[in-house]
Write a structure and sequence with these properties.
By secondary structure, this protein is of the alpha/beta class. It is built from 16 helices and 14 strands. Helix 9 links the parallel strand 8 and strand 9. Helix 1 (about 15-30) packs across helix 2 (about 45-50). The chain is globular.
Length: about 375
Amino acid sequence: MLYVKRSVWFHFASLGEFEQGRPVLEAFRAKKPESIIVITFFSPSGYEVRKNTPLADHTYYLPLDTKKNAARFIQTINPEIAIFTKYEYWYHYFDELHKRDIPLYVISGIFRPGQVFFKWYGGLHRRMLGFVTRFFVQDEASQTLLKTIGISNVSVSGDTRFDRVWQNASSPKKLEFVEQFKAGKPIFIGGSTWPEDEVLIAQLIPLYPEWKFIFAPHEIEEGKIARLLKLLPGEETVRCSQIENLDGGIAGFSVLVIDNIGMLSSLYQYGDMAFIGGGFGIGIHNTLEAAAFGLPMIFGPNYERFKEARDLVNLQLGFSIETEVQLTAVVDKMIRHSEYRTEKGVAIRTYVKEHTGATELIMQAIS
């Protein structure tokens, strides 16, 4: 059924892109509350978590990218503009928007030389980029790359994730049980950890008994949690799901395992140092959520695909390690020299603050 009133269409690949584009979505909702907002996702990780978001009037999975689907879907939602975040490029949808003279914007875009757009065989993909009304990219390197293939409708606006994490750190959701667990002691947080990360972090626990540790694994299936628990001191460890069944409080425990999802961005407010997982796999997870709270952070060697991680390493505010010895050396310096840790924390928050503002630049152009 055709939407009688024209809509504003936001598309996100998954939950991560939703959070990245959320500041623009919220700004649009605030500026034009009368607009019908349609959100689409490609991945279940986004749809299942955000299908009931009050920021949208309608939320859908985006149908497969065929000419017929694109024509039918766009005819149905009747968008006045379309906004895609970061990596999402759908040929037939882009083509259909172009044919109907519907403005299409890509926000927080980032481009690298290895992408198909810049290969000799990437003609079809380059044609698809030609359907975009304007690109809002994260850095000048992306703008320069696009110019090499004749695309000049580009603005360097920065990454909207900085706006999102700064907003979150400015008014974080309080977690009373974490406050009880902290009990005035410093906390080391393992965020979005994988088994390779957890083995290393677990070695730190007996070395620093005055510290507490929180593990927030990337995967929380029972088998994965059971494997993690085997690495930890049983009598000192409590699972989040067990807290309400305890007779006493949790202040006496030294290790807390978060066996649910959606809490990590709020957890960082209680931390003093963080290890960001994924760096021994295909790449590290979100460093900016921890950075917004001023947490010095450590991660594995696979971080090069992420500009903010490269920046943090270059500024000596983030530390990439490959071995237990390297991890212990970084942590030991941070713990034994609290003023050094505080100095790094202040500099990290400054870095995040200096990179906010992308949302405002984008909204000035599209609304």
